[in-house]
């Protein structure tokens, strides 16, 4: 079992002035060529084969050329008359030819090939340069009152480039484009602290899980509460995951519930398989499979085709129940380039990153990282995986997949790195740690050329909400 929440109100107890949230923190502590050019610049290469024309062979001439040098050495002291005779004989025999074997016809010249094109084929291919990975954070913001609890999920980055973070009883929004900060909601002490946040796919609406078992849905464009989902769980809601119009919630009661936010009776499916708190939830890119991790050290793969709309009948309908981890499973990440590949990370007693084929349930690989795995993120543009860790180094580690060779270790946090979120362009990663700082890392390189955005299928999912509920 991993360490849970810790008190973070030391500043308040000592009467110090509170720090403003999300403000800038103070200073902290040659590939060689695969082709070889001819040594003779005037020589032309017509291919890699030599096919002799036997009809052009002169065996008498060949015998003479092979034996003549030897005789030359034996008769080095020959008379001038003999030397003149030798030259005359060679002239008559060879007819001034120097090649024994010859082509019948001259090979045709290549068509439409310029001298510049011919030269370019002999140039070395440029080696792909290794991407520069900055070893320090681009920006550091203060995050006072960030709850130090491994099982919560308090950071998310929306599709409209706005980051949401829960600090104590308040959700703050940080606009990455302008750098501005705004307060979305502060809940009362009976409902707080906030235990999870998650952006809807439209980047405008955000779900907020509470310690009081409820879930709130907010419209960030107007700072308006759209509705509150009550009676879903019997304890705090520590994990959230969106699948189009379905908001999946995981609670300390071990239940996983699918809520259709468009309808009044929002509970549409219930998955029961965990005996302790559900601390990790992630839908696959296709929306067909759901991965859940719990404090019971279990990893479940759920398939939508096996779900039942009757809550009592949905019990134990998992596709795979995987028991290889030996600590809580919170870090989950679906691979963007292989739909059935899932990476998972275990807590302090496990320390392993495991890779799974979710179609068969097979464990493909397991790597001992040496420390608690808090979060995982795939690079959207390269075959790389980023992990965040706890004691002893509190680092972010970039791995090359599938070799799992370490490409970089990013240090700067002074306590465990509990949460990570990825920017919409996939290049920047935000990390929030128990040291109450939020850091931004340019770890995944520069963004690719923008592509025309497809029309979102989730547009208008909240259009029916015109009043508070």
Automatic annotation (TrEMBL):
Protein's UniProt keywords contain Transit peptide: no
One Gene Ontology cellular component annotation held by this UniProt entry: anaphase-promoting complex
SUPFAM superfamilies for this protein: WD40 repeat-like (SSF50978)
Keyword Repeat attached: yes
WD repeat placement: 187-228, 271-312, 410-443
Gene Ontology BP, a term: cell division
Start and end residues of each stretch annotated as Disordered: 1-46, 106-133
Gene3D superfamilies: YVTN repeat-like/Quinoprotein amine dehydrogenase
Keyword terms of this UniProt record: Cell cycle, Cell division, Mitosis, Repeat, WD repeat
CDD domains with a match to the protein in the record: WD40
Protein task: Component of the anaphase promoting complex/cyclosome (APC/C), a cell cycle-regulated E3 ubiquitin-protein ligase complex that controls progression through mitosis and the G1 phase of the cell cycle.
Family: Belongs to the WD repeat CDC20/Fizzy family.
Name of the protein this chain belongs to: CDC20/Fizzy WD40 domain-containing protein
The organism of origin for this protein: Oryza rufipogon (Brownbeard rice)
Organism ancestry: Eukaryota, Viridiplantae, Streptophyta, Embryophyta, Tracheophyta
